[in-house]
Amino acid sequence: MTMENTRWPYFDPDYETTCSSFNPPRVTIENDTYDNATVVKVYSADRHGILLNVVQVLTDLDLSIFKSDIFSDGDWFMDVFHVVDRCGKKVTDEDTLQYIQKSLGYRTKREQSSADLLRRSAGLTFSDHTVVELTGPDRPGLLSEISAVLTRFGCNVNAAEVWTHNLRVACVIYFTDTKTGLPIQSQSRLGHIKEQLIRVVKGDRDEQAARCKIEYATESTHIERRLHQLMYDDRGHEELDSSRNLQDRPNIQIKGNDRGYSMVSIQCKDRPKLLFDIVCTLTDMQYVIHHALINSPGPDTTQVSFFL
């Protein structure tokens, strides 16, 4: 993995806080402890969402987390991640290792500016675009119909990501004016685009079945993080997909204990970004993760335990 083909992740601008200035995260990366994995350790002052930030950084670098021990005690937070690259090997590229070190640790304003430049060069920021967020009932050909509406209104789609779940769809689309290459500023034009998109997305359903939001894009938007939030907000409209095999559903158990914690145990098929998806969901539900154990004993199985 080299600097040229690595997709550098987005960093929350609030990450560099006064607390982190006085108690900067301590990050260590070990490549000599295990033959088959790189070990990333993060020790820092605790705050809500910090686990999501760490997992997001590793996930955006296409690193697979196959084992982890997460512990929070009072005001402090300790993470140990066993990671491999997209080829299943230890992370040996020096640029990637240095970037993990700087991104998870305390960064000066100059280092933060350098990180922003790297993200721009990698094409991960969309500050000069208009963004549309859509949720609604899924159906064949929907994305084609959405694209046709944008084309008809003179929009050039520059980036898009679409998720589907339980017969629902969520998508984030970045676009500019076809003629000028700039974000569309006309509120009247944007209003017509929104009206047509809602009509297309809702299909033969009522107006409440579809949602559409159009605004000027900012650099603070992490697309997959935003899709998680859109899906979570849309959960009241979900329908059971009868075509899904019930045997493929994860086995989830929730138990209480005498220490006031709830233990959530999950056993399911392993896949890329699984831990990121789980942590996003728990964070959106306003749960605080005090302790967690993640283990992938085989290529098709992941066992996760959270204490909330």
Automatic annotation (TrEMBL):
Matches recorded under Gene3D superfamilies: 3.30.70.260
UniProt xrefs under PROSITE patterns: ACT
Domain ACT: 39-122, 131-208, 263-308
InterPro entries per UniProt: ACR1-12 (IPR040217), ACR2/9/10_N (IPR056816), ACT-like_dom_sf (IPR045865), ACT_dom (IPR002912)
Domain of life of the organism encoding this protein: Eukaryota
Entry keywords, A to Z: Repeat
PANTHER family for this protein: ACT DOMAIN-CONTAINING PROTEIN ACR4, ACT DOMAIN-CONTAINING PROTEIN ACR4-RELATED
Protein name (record): ACT domain-containing protein
UniProt organism field: Ceratodon purpureus
